[in-house]
Design brief:
two-stranded antiparallel sheet, 7 helices
């Protein structure tokens, strides 16, 4: 989960209480990713109301709409019902940069379980705590009906981290000219971009292992 720039162009259909073309607009805005898990592989996606209609969230309000995969949508609905006063960080609000407040750990190893936790555990806001709770259940769900999907999602993230690791290995061990290093740095930057799958995990892979190196300069910046 990362910050997403809300497209200022409101789909015309919403003014007519219709969702025609809205999913397509959200897909483009979110770079073909679910806003929660950041997977690009899901076949089934839903237009989701960030603030439920029961909490006076606008059904046809552009600022209240995001796109979620079936797996994340199901778990979010379950978690929101179980946690009193559930609060979720708004990924389109740049007052909070999500990857500054939440750490996403994945080492890219088979059979690994990902870890998602507040950067500062003591004093983390309820919205941060509830968001961490939700994301951990999305990737590590134990219920038999959803555990298979959670593992498949985690496996996707691990495979994506492996691609980043391979680029870093090539840069470190097989590039003997500045020209090749520069080409690989561009490839690494592209792999870390907001358009790539599981960007949050990739950002934290660099933060956790390569703090103070040239790779930190390749991380995406979240300027609205």
């Amino acid at each position: 989960m990362i910050n997403i720039i809300r497209d200022p162009q409101i789909p015309d259909a919403l003014s007519k209480n219709s969702f025609d073309g809205v999913k397509e607009a959200l897909i483009k805005m979110q770079h073909y990713k679910c806003y929660l898990c950041e997977s690009k592989e899901s076949i089934t996606t839903h237009i989701e109301h960030f603030k439920p209609k029961s909490q006076k969230g606008g059904k046809y309000e552009w600022q209240n709409l995001l796109l979620a995969c079936d797996h994340c949508n199901s778990i979010k609905n379950y978690v929101a019902d179980k946690i009193e006063g559930f609060e979720l960080l708004d990924c389109t609000n740049f007052d909070t940069i999500i990857t500054d407040e939440i750490a996403f750990y994945c080492g890219g190893m088979p059979r690994e379980k990902v870890r998602i936790e507040p950067v500062i555990s003591d004093g983390a806001s309820k919205a941060i705590q509830d968001t961490v709770n939700l994301l951990n259940q999305i990737f590590n769900y134990n219920s038999e009906s959803l555990a298979f999907d959670a593992k498949a999602l985690t496996d996707e993230a691990i495979k994506e981290l492996k691609k980043l690791m391979d680029l870093i290995h090539e840069y470190e061990f097989n590039s003997f000219s500045e020209e090749k290093k520069n080409r690989l740095k561009l490839d690494i930057k592209d792999n870390l971009s907001v358009e790539s799958p599981f960007t949050a995990f990739k950002i934290w892979f660099i933060k956790a292992r390569y703090s103070g190196t040239e790779f930190m300069e390749l991380l995406p910046t979240f300027d609205e």
